[in-house]
Amino acid sequence: MVKQKRDLTKMKTPHTYVIIFIVVVAAWLLTFAVPAGKFSTTDVQYKDANGETSTRTVLKQSTFRYDYPMDKAFVYDKLEEIAQDPQELAKLNVTEKDVQTVLKEGEKNLDQEKLDAISLKDDTLYDLYGDKIYDKSHKLHKTAKVWGTDDFGGFGFLNFVFEGLVSGDKYGSAVGIAALILVVGGAFGIIMRTGAIDAAIYAFISKTRGLEKFAIPLLFFAFSLGGATFGMAEEVIPFSMVMVPFVIALGYDSIVAVTVTYVASQVGNATSWMSPFSVAVAQGIAGIPVLSGATFRLIMWVTITALSAGYLMIYAERIRKNPLRSEVYESDEYFRNHLEKTANENKPFLLGHKLILVEMLAVLIWIIWGVTQKGYYIPEIASQFFVMGLAAGITAVLFKLDMGWNDIAKSFQNGAADLAGTAIVVGMAKGILLVLGGSEPNVASALNTILHSISGLLSGVPSMIGAWVMYIFQSLFNLVVTSNSGQAALTMPIMAPLADLIQVPRQIAVLAYQLGAGFVDAFTPVSASLIGVLGVARIEWIKWAKFQIKMQGFFFVLGTIFIMIAIMIGLQ
Q1: pLDDT digits over 323-343, tens only?
Q2: How many C-beta atoms surround the C-beta of residue 146 within 10 A?
Q3: What does the alpha-carbon distance between residue 227 and residue 425 come to, in Å, rounded to a whole number?
């Protein structure tokens, strides 16, 4: 009996939700083993993108301590001393009356909640007396219940989805980011329904016939732009049905076709300055302005896209001169036999389509201007995307692009539904933090202890090496978790505060995430979008890997260079 080979192109990976739930359970179990810890914090001032002075709360690296019960006898004695010292009372901004009220309740009833009420925070007492305020006989753990809510028994980890989704406000994660994703999804649902993007790409393909040497780099930039602006990935699959025979007709092979479409889209995704599904999600979770750092990323996108297109052209020209050198020459025979029929498929590129694309470009410029010049944030960006989608829908109706007024509403609904899963992922990400005890550095949690331990391993490591290690980690992580939003949800809650500890700007932590998550998506066999495109092109993953592993090395070098540049210029 002949043993059948395992088809690596049909490998299945657990759903993102399954992976996240496993992480949640693991995080909950971890809190039984890892004691809670905390840091003191301080406010620092800095110049924002508009040159104005802003304030940010950061942790003080040297102030980590485990969560211990209060040494009531020691603290009570010190309260009595403070109550008799007018200068100390003034320095601490508390009144003798308030201190005496706490003292009257007795040493036995003393707790931090009562001290918080009179503005004697744990951080304040720690700054004054160090760890003498604690009974260090045993460390405390902050472990969630299995089920429960804040009103009934306390937070339970099985409620992580709801609690995660409703946390925060409209200016950040999770509520603000989740709402932004839904609005953007609805807007692009309308735009895709108009057919403008489809028609534009088909027209582009048609216009580049006879311009073989220019067609590949132009198409590479076009699909890279799609990845950079709206996270193009699975949308590449239908275009690959046209692109594969078209590229083969130019004298190249199906590997070139997949690279110029799917790989290009992932290059755009990896270097995006504005994708609401990757960089915006990661920035929201990291607690930095959404779509900030756009100028640096725009330069990075142009540079890496151009160099990647050049890399592809070297391979493509080698295949054009000698098609037999292609790993997929035999499987491409199918397309060569059906070339004439498939290569001539076309869609009309009408005036309405062109106006929609112009309107999209105008709004994208408006968004970039608003973010960089006016400090627009999540509410404004969401509104701008809604305007983009609404204007596209109205244009489609007025120019009779097979759309009615109800179709605008249905398309918005369908687009939002397509990204509802991504919005939930954002809430789940916050839920992971809640299970670990929260992300506030001055609130005792297992996460703070983990961060302290990791930072200890990286202590003394230059920030450049630390950022590079983050990039390597994100690249390896993407081999198993290919969802950009899912990877952001799982890694950024730890990477962002870790960046603070090793003195790497959070903006660079996000950069390491997006470069790692984007580039490796073009290689990993668990990427549903990649496997879909390879299926259309009739390429076995093993043959694809032989080509792509070299390109991944090229991408890694480029990513490393830009990580180093970001560190040297202090990207914020």
Answers
A1: 888 888 888 787 777 655 544
A2: 10
A3: 20
